[in-house]
């Protein structure tokens, strides 16, 4: 049987609906949905066809929408609608992509009278703006919470049984529902940071294979077949290392640019996500460990006398270790210390170079 949601004659989505309040039987029913500007109509399906008259409607004025909705552990593809009369509707979809697409369309209909807000919603769908004071340590603590944290399950993959695991898509849903990210792209970036900093680790062939990708953003999979688990290091209290001492004056400059970049370490030559603060008067570039609660830099240097340049993307440049390439730039200090840094795009790399050059 083919069911679908139609708006303007275009089939958008398959849905199942569970009305919880104001209904006698609280069972799951297949319904055909029609999304209009101010309401959501649903129809019964008989003999594979939609009945001519709607079975019911959901008025969108004053509605609030929750997506992803994690109230049902075994139903990860839900959208929750709460009307202004406090009636709850749960709609289930057949894939995360379709669920998120419908959630965006329904949200647009709810705010149809506010075009500026609708434009902002569409911009946020593909936005990349992580929280400035994000703490990966805090996220992991929330993930481990027995009541509100991410649900751990047993999984069997290619004959191997894994205990206390979660899927990539489940983590992405959890990060969004707990307001750590506003889009799946942001959540994937956050999850990649958690994996890079060894808070979580891939298990099983599907997720382990993805770590071989050179692109940082492709190493974590937003996939229901990719398994992950907490790394042992995230369950232990790591002893604090001796903190680097920074002169108060070098941290007094005005911050002219901030952002997350991937930096190669000096000793182990591994790549880690760091938050960078570019300061002027005096000109310094400091970087912070996003896993640390305290807002203290773990490194930094004066930009006076530095050289900054983009590195070619065709092959791994000399001095760069590991399977990382693309969107790289290099900073050489006046003491001949080389810093290799990776941006998320060529445009972002160019912006950082343009911001650094006048301060050298």
From TrEMBL:
> Which residues are in the PH domain?
9-111, 254-360
Alphabetical list of Pfam families matching this protein: DEP, PH
Organism superkingdom: Eukaryota
Alphabetically list the UniProt keywords. Answer: Acetylation, Cell membrane, Cell projection, Cytoplasm, Cytoskeleton, Membrane, Phosphoprotein, Repeat
Give the DEP domain ranges.
Answer: 146-232
Q: Which InterPro entries match?
A: DEP_dom (IPR000591), PH-like_dom_sf (IPR011993), PH_domain (IPR001849), Pleckstrin (IPR037370), WH-like_DNA-bd_sf (IPR036388), WH_DNA-bd_sf (IPR036390)
- Kindly give the membrane topology term recorded for this protein: Peripheral membrane protein
Quote the cellular component terms of the Gene Ontology held in the record. cytoskeleton; lamellipodium membrane
* Gene Ontology biological-process annotations: actin cytoskeleton organization; intracellular signal transduction
List localization entries.
Answer: Cell projection, Lamellipodium membrane; Cytoplasm, Cytoskeleton
Name the principal localization, coarsely classed: membrane
Name by which UniProt lists this protein = Pleckstrin-2
